[in-house]
């Protein structure tokens, strides 16, 4: 299993021996596999508490087994992620306070009932100063990271995942912060929360558990951006991940041919390519502003005080020839 976030924990009663059903020399051992419904509760915390109580009851009542295996996606979630001791530390969470209460309780329960318990938890780790295992996520300022979920499957866990669309646009029907007219061009891959186009560009509310099912290992976008008819053009990458940060410049390649800044009179071919896999992309795009001179037609003129219209452009611009933006978007989306 690739995921770092989900670890199977074997909580052992280290001093168990006499009670154990099976001996090391036995060819078999007795295992119990638990099916469990989703715990109920208003918050992640109450759901975890309720699941922990239920697991402990099952451990107490399971009877003569050597090992009991609980299902994934039940005991905790991102909000109740727990530190997990490394096996080399030889730590029994029952004796420590560094872990989430449920982990301590289940460890003690395993010990008291002298059996092995396998649970599957959402884990967090210290990551400040380069600590922690290598993940695709940057370390947040808190210094504690709960790796963005990378679960292999998500049975009835109710978690959401982003869908993606690709879009190609060149036109005047765009605005800056919903107010000023612009002429923009873009070749973009972007996230949506459901099938509706109107859901694109929005994120899930904070209390939703989001588990992405799309893991981008290869993603390249090429766009042929036309020359700037008015002599001004800005072409740049537009990227965003689920931490609301741009994708690190080290994680993608950006090639302009010829160089955009010094060749506004020429069309530019831009290639944007992922260099490192990403599992929490919200936007990955080439974006261009052509600085329209079309005046705004509404009265929200905070950028044009008192409604003064700066000299409407003359009709000479009608000679602008028709360019086509050709975006060759090739995405190889591999799903874990
Ligand atoms: C944007 O509007 C200007 C002025 O009407 C026009 O010349 C230009 O072709 C339009 N751009 C696009 C991409 O349609
Ligand atoms: C806009 O109108 C106000 C009030 O009439 C005036 O004081 C201000 O100087 C005007 N601003 C500009 C940029 O013309």
From TrEMBL:
The keyword Transmembrane helix does not apply. It holds the Pfam family Vanin_C. Residues 1-20 form the signal peptide. It comes from the Eukaryota. Keywords: Hydrolase, Signal. Gene3D superfamilies: Carbon-nitrogen hydrolase. One of its GO terms (biological process) is chromatin organization. GO terms for molecular function: biotinidase activity. Residues 160-293 form the Vanin C-terminal domain. PANTHER family: BIOTINIDASE, BIOTINIDASE-RELATED. This is GM12588. It comes from Drosophila sechellia. The gene is Dsec\GM12588.
């Amino acid at each position: 299993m690739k995921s770092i976030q989900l670890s199977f924990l074997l909580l052992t009663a280290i001093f168990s021996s006499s009670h154990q059903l099976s001996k090391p020399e036995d060819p078999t051992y007795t295992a119990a596999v638990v099916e469990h419904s989703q715990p109920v509760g208003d918050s992640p915390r109450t759901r975890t508490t309720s699941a922990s109580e239920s697991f402990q009851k099952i451990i107490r009542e399971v009877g003569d087994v050597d090992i009991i295996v609980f299902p994934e996606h039940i005991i905790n979630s991102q909000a109740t992620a727990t530190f997990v001791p490394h096996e080399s530390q030889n730590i029994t969470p029952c004796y420590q306070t560094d872990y989430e209460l449920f982990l301590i309780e289940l460890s003690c329960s395993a010990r008291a009932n002298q059996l092995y318990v396998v649970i599957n938890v959402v884990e967090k780790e210290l990551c400040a100063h380069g600590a922690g295992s290598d993940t695709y996520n940057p370390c947040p300022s808190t210094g504690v990271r709960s790796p963005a979920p990378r679960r292999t499957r998500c049975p009835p866990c109710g978690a959401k995942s982003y869908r993606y669309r690709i879009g190609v646009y060149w036109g005047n029907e765009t605005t800056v912060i919903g107010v000023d007219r612009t002429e923009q061009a873009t070749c973009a891959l972007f996230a949506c929360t459901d099938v509706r186009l109107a859901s694109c560009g929005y994120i899930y509310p904070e209390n939703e558990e989001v588990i992405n099912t799309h893991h981008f290992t290869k993603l390249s976008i090429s766009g042929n951006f036309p020359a700037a008819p008015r002599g001004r053009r800005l072409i740049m990458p537009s990227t965003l991940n689920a931490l609301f940060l741009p994708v690190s410049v080290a994680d993608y390649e950006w090639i302009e041919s010829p160089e955009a800044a010094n060749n506004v009179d020429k069309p530019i071919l831009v290639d944007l390519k992922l260099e490192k896999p990403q599992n929490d992309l919200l936007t990955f795009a080439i974006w261009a502003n052509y600085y329209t001179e079309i005046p705004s037609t509404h009265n929200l003129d905070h950028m044009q005080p008192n409604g003064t219209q700066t000299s409407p452009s003359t009709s000479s611009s009608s000679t602008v020839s028709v360019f086509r933006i050709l975006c060759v978007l090739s995405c190889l989306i591999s799903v874990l």
